[in-house]
Amino acid sequence: MMKAAVLQQFGQPLALADVAVPTPAADEVLLQTQACGIDGTDLKLCAGFGYTPQLPFIMGHEIAGIVRAVGSGVTDFAPGDRVIVYNFLFCGRCVYCLTQREQLCLNMRGVMGVLQRHGGYAEYVAVPAQQLVPIPPSVAWEDAAVCCDALLTAIHALERSRLRLGETVIVIGVGGVGSVLVQLARLAGAQVIAVDHDARRADWAAENGAHVFVDSSAEPDLAQKLRALTDGLGAACVIDVVGKQATMHAAFNSLQRAGRLVIVGYTPDHFPVPGKQLAQNELEIIGTRAGRRSDLSAALNLLAAGQLKSIVRYRYPLAAVNEALAHLRAGGALGRIVLTYHA
Ligand SMILES: [Zn+2]
């Protein structure tokens, strides 16, 4: 048996329970969880909004662990290996998988810790071997874990943005993904303006490399403020990690000519796009979803090389998972909250 935090009913705290250790199939491994990140998707899952897995369900989609057993068909991994998990259970055969865009797979069989397959809020988890990426020795468990979503999403979004040396970029939302985006934009040689509705994130944004911080809660006209900060020109690129009507609208109106708006975060909101402005200014609106499996290797390499700083600020044991979720729900948390499983 093993300890697991089980979502038994939407809107209720997770139940700490003893459940059976999963048995890996022939093409799977059994991981002993070492760290698992917590993010907004988990809050949505708890509330039954957006994703509705069949209950009871074990959440946790930022998983780092040690391989403890392998199925009969697994040859690439062995007990003792340190690995992280790519969450999208991709088919490997469709046009998107064959072009290394597994997050767009046409035959997705689920998402680890989100849909169909139990995740890392448990001492052990069974994972198909094709989902695993090895962790370099110098990367800590907690930092490796948050590669699975926070770093993955930021790296892919930056690639989608086509950010170039010397450009000005605005990052709206300096949570987990936004923090990494600020770091990456700085690494890419851009002038970085960070925006958040929580003024408590000003110092944090600076620590991550932002040149300027804008408290959007204090700005009645955010686009006007952002234009003023860019000499009236606007930014070459705006990356919206929030995706609310107000942020998308401000982002669109902060673009310079030929500017690119990248939508990372989303809500049920829409925003009006004036066709004339889009056409005559040659603007681009770009969507981005999580990332490719290969982006996990890029994330781990950046951490191993010391190019990215840790965004993990809070650690909780599995037994305190409900406190950890409450911490995130309360707002004001900086970077990432992680469950750690061993001293
Ligand atoms: Zn596929």
Name the descriptors:
343 residues; Quinone Oxidoreductase, Chain A, domain 1; binds zinc ion; 7-stranded mixed sheet; 17 strands; Rossmann fold; alpha/beta; globular; 6-stranded parallel sheet; 27% helix
Tell me the domain tally: 2
Structural class: alpha/beta
**Unreliable stretches:** none
The total beta strand count reads 17
Q: Major sheet, described briefly?
A: 7 strands, mixed
Q: List the helices and strands in order.
A: EEEHEEHEEEEHHEHEHEHEHEHEHEHE
- Work out the strand percent: 25-35%
CATH level 1 name of the largest domain: Alpha Beta
What is the CATH-assigned architecture of the largest domain? Answer: Alpha-Beta Complex
From the alpha-carbon coordinates, what is the Rg to the nearest angstrom? Answer: 20 Å
So what's the overall shape? Answer: globular
CATH topology of the largest domain: Quinone Oxidoreductase, Chain A, domain 1
CATH superfamily assignment of the largest domain?
Answer: Medium-chain alcohol dehydrogenases, catalytic domain
Q: What's the rounded overall pLDDT mean?
A: 97
Helical fraction equals: 25-40%
First-last Cα distance: 21 Å
